[in-house]
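sorry to bug you again but im stuck and you know this stuff better than me. below you get a single protein, a line of residues and a line of whole numbers that encode the local backbone shape. mainly i need to know what kind of three dimensional shape the backbone takes. anything you notice is useful, everything is just below:

***
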Amino acid sequence: MNQAILTFIKNWTLPVSIITGIVVYLLFHFVPFLQPIGRWYLPYNDNVLPDFMFLVLFVTFCKVDFRRLLPVKWHLWIGIQQVVFIFALLGIILGFGITGRALIMLEAILVCIISPAASAAAVVTAKLGGSLEEMTTYTFISNFISALLIPLCFPLLPHTAGAMEQVEFVPLFLKILWQVGVVLILPMGAAYIVKHGFHRLHRRIVGVKDLSYYLWGASLVVVSGTTAMNILDAWAHTPVVFLLSIAALGLILCIIQFATGRFIGHYFDKIVEAGQALGQKNTAFAIWVATAFLNPLSSVGPGCYILWQNIINSVEIWMVRRKGMEKAA
């Protein structure tokens, strides 16, 4: 019985993590004797996710061949596609003079497009048999694209024009670049030191199979709980149909981005890498950007996108695992 449960959790780590995060949050929110513990923990919640992401990336980078972190052709075309999506949506907003709730819905989509590839995308790519080094390289490229386009595009939006028109481009650009750069550079530097200076520790880390994958699953518990909290807060003063519309648009966008990435990737025999690069987004960063610079309700978009992209990831991993079992048989 116990072995069956462990096997199920191993095979379906991502959906189990998402459901666990949501259920745990709801318990601490609604069960009276657990509510004081939830209120005590809440101030620490924002610090837990960065710690998890550091561990996930540190373990992932310990497996990276740093000599192979070089740009390749598919990086260019995926980057161009992201920019095209961004300016197409921005053109629709400005061209049609969209305001009100329609603007919030489009902001929710825009923030999911403009955000960089997820730092953990390399973990899934490796799990699916793709190139860890190429995906890691594109993660850096996409972070730079986001850091350039966010301060360039957001001041043009009707909702943010008054709030951001006095913000200079260079300070905002450097602030965003610093935020996303630290998330990548610190664990990479630590991994490089361990790999080349502490060989015994490095062998023990890389010797644990799928360690980064399960750490990422643990981080999803935190992300999912935070997402449930944001949606529940919005639920109290926002029509349900409006929230469901944002969730539905997030699902459509998620499918389009994964499909477009895979379509571009097939020209370079990099379907897995390109699909993850365009489809799997750093939704924690997207939620921060939405709450910092846009209408806070737009953060529901990346909050739901977390669920959609990890459902797709779970299906992809299941398909790869099934093919492996068929070959073994």
User: Anything to note?
Assistant: The two ends are 24 Å apart (CA to CA). The chain has 15 helices and no strands. Residues 161-165 have pLDDT under 50 and may be disordered. Residues 169-197 form the longest helix (29 residues).
